[in-house]
Specification:
Layout (H helix, E strand, L loop, with lengths): L7 E6 L5 E2 L15 E5 L1 H7 L2 H6 L28 E4 H7 L5 E5 L9 H14 L4 E5 L3 H11 L4 E7 L4 H9 L3 E5 L3 H15 L2 E2 L6 H7 L1 H9 L7 E5 L4 H15 L8 E7 L4 H7 L24 H11 L2 E5 L1 H15 L5 H15 L9 E5 L7 H8 L10 H6 L4
Parallel strand pairs: 5-13, 6-7, 6-9, 7-8, 10-11, 10-13, 11-12
Antiparallel strand pairs: 1-2, 1-3, 4-5
Helix pairs in contact: 4-5, 4-8, 5-6, 8-10, 9-10, 10-12, 11-12, 13-14, 13-15
The chain binds pyridoxal-5'-phosphate and zinc ion.
């Protein structure tokens, strides 16, 4: 007997469309090995769940969406989700937009990144399966979110990260008790190693774009946006993209709320990738087929050569009527300071790419200035201060001597 996955009724293949019943160790389509989407009986759910019941919920975490999550209870531990929407009127004016740009600051999650959403749902699924050891490979944030959130429920974690992951992310992993395997290679190699370990040892695997339950956590950001905007769907949602799992999750969230009748339209999605790591944007603009790239960018979180949720991501861009843009590392680094000074939000490079990408889309004439736009800020800048310092520069060094003050500030 398989353990039920909350209200899920099956897993639908992204490629061949086959619906497979939920099973304990089933991650991908048994027919063609492609990724699967968790499916719910939305017609049945419609009868018991409404906008009104949701609005009355006092739960200010992603667990307010439990009726449409693949688990039967919340994960014990620090609150995840319900992150603030920060208005950025100065940034809007800079782009000539008529409505304030809104930044969804997911750096406020317990591990300081969006990935808490995914890890909390995947960890709860592992717990409901009776698993006590969870493994994952990550550019850094998915892993640190897993380690942070596994602490309270007492789940062991065994994590593969490229040894080049920013120190703050590795510090989080070690401090929160993960067993860390720093791979002398790329994220893609760490990913493959972790998959092999799962095949050999049967550890529960939380990998992005492999475990279908991560997307379920990620979709909650769209639910929050609908509620926080009083059910007014944004015209454009800007998403920084690596494996494409956030993007496919964001899309799934809006589509499910539309099918439930909670919203009456869908946004366009703007996928932003770094120039050196743009497999999804290239595929979306071309024949739709994902081909590996070098995966080379300063934005470590979106440095991916073979995106693991590429097909679903390309589909999401196309179905939304949206588009992709690429941005240079120089533009990404500059964007860190621009978002900080322009809106009071500290973003790590991948998250700052949202703003850099929106600017690029405006420059290319892809954005209607009247649109209501939300940009996802997916990770906090303190995650990678070395990158911030590349653009911020060094402070002025002065002697500890009061006399220097008059020299420095002759006019006060
Ligand atoms: C801060 C941040 N932004 C964006 C992404 C991209 O998400 P995905 O790999 O699902 O496309 C990640 C993934 O690690 C991330 O950590
Ligand atoms: Zn299939």
């Amino acid at each position: 007997m398989s353990v039920r996955a909350g209200a899920a009724v099956g897993l639908r293949c992204v490629a061949c469309g086959r619906l497979t019943p939920v099973a304990d160790d089933l991650y991908v389509c048994p027919g063609c090995n492609a990724n699967v989407l968790v499916e719910y009986d939305l017609d049945a759910l419609k009868k018991s769940w409404s906008r009104e019941s949701l609005t009355k919920s006092g739960d200010r975490t992603l667990w307010r969406y439990l009726p449409i999550l693949p688990v039967s209870a919340r994960l014990e531990g620090p609150p995840v989700g319900w992150t603030p929407l920060v208005a950025a009127p100065r940034l809007s004016r800079e782009l000539g937009l008529s409505q304030p740009l809104l930044l969804k600051d997911d750096g406020r999650n317990p591990s300081a990144s969006f990935k808490c959403r995914a890890s909390s749902v995947a960890l709860k699924r592992a717990q409901e399966l009776g698993r006590t050891l969870v493994t994952g490979a990550s550019t850094g944030n998915a892993a640190s979110a897993t380690a942070v959130l596994a602490a309270a429920p007492g789940i062991r974690t065994r994590i593969f990260v490229p040894k080049t992951a920013p120190r703050a992310k590795i510090a989080q992993l070690l401090t929160f008790g993960a067993e860390v395997l720093a791979v002398d290679g790329t994220y893609d190699q760490a990913f493959d190693l972790c998959l092999e370990a799962t095949r050999r040892f049967g550890w529960y695997n939380r990998n992005t774009g492999f475990n279908p339950y991560t997307r379920e956590g990620k979709k909650t950001v769209s639910f929050e946006l609908c509620e926080q905007l009083d059910w007014q769907v944004p015209d454009l949602v800007v998403v920084p993209v690596g494996d494409g799992n956030i993007l496919s999750g964001v899309w799934k969230g809006f589509v499910e709320f539309q099918r439930l009748g909670f919203i009456d339209r869908l946004p366009k999605l703007l996928a932003v990738q770094a120039e050196g790591s743009a497999a999804i944007v290239k595929a979306a603009a071309g024949d739709g087929v994902i081909r590996p790239v070098s995966g080379d960018t300063v934005a470590d979180s979106i440095s991916v050569s073979l995106p693991r949720d590429g097909d679903a991501a390309v589909k999401a861009i196309r179905e939304s009527g949206g588009f992709g843009v690429t941005v240079s590392d120089t533009a990404i680094l500059a964007a860190i300071g621009e978002v900080a000074r322009g809106a009071g939000v500290f973003a790590e490079p991948a998250a700052a790419a949202s703003w850099a990408g929106l600017k690029e889309a405006v420059r290319l004439g892809l954005v209607d200035p009247a649109w209501r736009i939300v940009a996802l800020i997916t990770g906090n800048g303190l995650k990678d201060v070395a990158s911030a310092m590349k653009t911020a520069g060094e402070p002025r060094l002065i002697p500890p001597d009061a006399g220097v003050l008059d020299t420095l500030f002759p006019e006060g």
